Every structure is written in structure tokens, then in C-alpha cells.
Amino acid sequence: MTETTYSLDNIRLRLNKLDDELLSLLSERRKMSLEVAKSKVQTAKPVRDAAREQQLLVKLINAGKDKYQLDAEYITKLFHTIIEDSVLLQQAYLQNLANPETCRKPLARVAFLGDKGSYSHLASQEYFSRKNTDLIKLNCQHFREIIKTVESGHADYGVLPIENTSSGSINEVYDQLQHTTLYIVGELTLPIEHCLVATSETKLEEVTTLYSHPQPYQQCSEFLSHLPKINLVSCSSTVDAMNKVKALDKRDTAAIGNATTAKLYGLQPIKGNIANQTENHTRFIIVARKPVEVSSQIPAKTTLIMSTSQQAGSLVSTLLVLQKFSINMTKLESRPIMGNPWEEMFYVDLEAHLNDENMQQALAELTKLTTHIKVLGCYPSENVKPTQVKIN
Fold first, then answer.
1. How many domains does the chain have?
2. At which residues is there a site annotated Essential for prephenate dehydratase activity (predicted)?
3. 49 labelled as ligand-binding?
4. Tens digits of residue pLDDT in 332-341
5. 40 in a labelled binding site
């Protein structure tokens, strides 16, 4: 029996048809996810059901292996993405119900650092595309300018990078949060892919001057340590750095930035994957003049700032309160209080809904133990943790 062979054109036609069928099925699945969210409005069930997700993944892994010869890692990776999309879609639906005024605004003025193609711009697009919101983009050159633009009412939202998996906390943003009247209303984690870009196919050893925002310098410090003779020039943003390199148009000049963005500015990558960590991500926060209501059915974070007395064990006492009420702390950052030498302000991220009984009791006790405490915001947690299953 002879095996049927197909021409490359026929294979491509078949693949195109299969891709269209996949898109149709994904669209139908999204519609069903929204129906699930609508049903949960009536039942008040939480968006995530860990047991259900685990059962689903195990069933899919077994079916993929037995029926379709698909390996477990492939199925798991694929459906982690699908489950994440479903969770975020349902959260957005419930949040729109909780915040009808925001839901009625299909257009938002958003302030962010840098110009088109900057990491903050990419984060803005990613976050608001999930909300089906179009943007009026307001470019800012400094973090303080972002804060002022929102505080003054010229922007509805500000997008600020708060921490990176490689370089750590972005202290300048924490210092701005110490004095602002704005609230944190959302978050987003964005993969960061740094590379060297130049106007032509320059060899690495030819580069003598490198432009960048200070954060990428920190995130690529190990790579840069092997290039001690390069002159590092700081810029207000990654896009500002690329614009300078484009204007200079010199073979010995390069910038650190995103390869896709570089193409927008007529540059090309000459060296990729230069970050200290392969998994390089930046967490952004979204700030606004008013807090948001967070549906009790979705995972939430609460961020607060507090200062304690100078007595021994003061900070430990506050952390024991969180332990007492089983509140998980995901971030603790200290920053000096301007004008008060040797005194610290502590920023705390908690996996908790502000209106939960445990959180309210914890706040009551923390208020007694601290010299100052303020809630910066309660907002939906959009870091969807992958469902864990054991893969044999």
C-alpha cells in the first residue's frame, strides 16, 4: 500500500485550514468562559477553582497522550495559556460589573515613560487591551511627570514599573508613591527582552558607546562587565536611547532595547539575550486618582505603606500580625523617609482583599502598632499562577 504524498502547497493549504479551525474554537471557548463568569455572578463562586483546573489538565494530558500522541509538556504549556486567558477574561467581566463608570469609558488617557515602543508603552497596550480600552497616549520623560499628569487630571491612568526580576525594586517609583495621592488600581507583569541595537551590522568589539535607561544597565550588568571599555550614557528611556543612536548613525554606537521596537526606529539587533536572567520580567502598576472596587470573587492584592517606631522588634510585631491572620506577604520594601534621617517607610504587598474580615482585623491591629499607615490600593491580581499538576 503506497503512502500518499502531498505537495508543499497542499500542506500549507491544509495547515491554513487547521489554523482557521483553531481560531474558531478558541473564539468559541472564550465565549463559553464569559458564560461561566455570568453564571458565577448568580452563584458568587470565585473565578478560580484549583481542583477543577487540576482535574481538567490531568484529563487533557491523558487524552493527549493516549488519543493524539501529544506529550504532557506541550499540553500543559498550551492550556496554561488558555486557562490564564479565561481567568483574566472572567476577572475583567466581574470588574466591569463592580465598576460600571469605568466600564462605560472605551477610551482612556494613559501616561507612561518614554515614547512609542518603550517597555512602559508596551505594558500600557497589553494592560488596556485586556479591558477593550483604546488609548490616548501621553508620553512622559520622568516618573514624577507621570504622577503629576495623573494627579492634575490630564491623564486617567499612569503606568509605572515597580520591580524587575533581575535588577530588583525601582526605588525612584517607591519614593514617588510615598507622597502621591494616587491609588494603585491594577498590575501587569511584562517579559523584558534586552538586546544591543545599532544602525548597521556592527560587530560587538566595534562598539565604544552604549546608550540606555539606567534600569537596563542594571538588568544587563553581567554582560556589560565583560565590556569594560564601553562608555555608558544614561537616557530618560529605552526609546530615547534608540533615538540618540539613530541620530548619531555611527558604527561604534549602540543602545539597549527591544528588538521589535528597534525596527520601528530603523535600528537592528547586533546581540540578543544580554539580560542577567533568562526569565527577565518587569512588574508594572497602574495608578489613578480614585480607587477601584474589587469583586470579592477574584484574587486581589492590597498594597500599603507604613512606618514603625524605632524600638527593637517593631517591624517584627507588624509581620506577626499578618501571620496571625494568615495573610501572605509577597513584597516588603523599605525606603528612607525624606527629612527624617535613619527612619524607614515600608511598602507591603499582600495577597488579600481589602474588605476581607481577616484583612480588616489585621489593619486594625497594624494601625495600633505603626506610627503611620496608608492603603495605596486594593486591585485585581493579574499574575495568574499556573495550575500545578504532576507530569509523569
1. 4
2. 282
3. yes
4. 998 887 767 6
5. yes
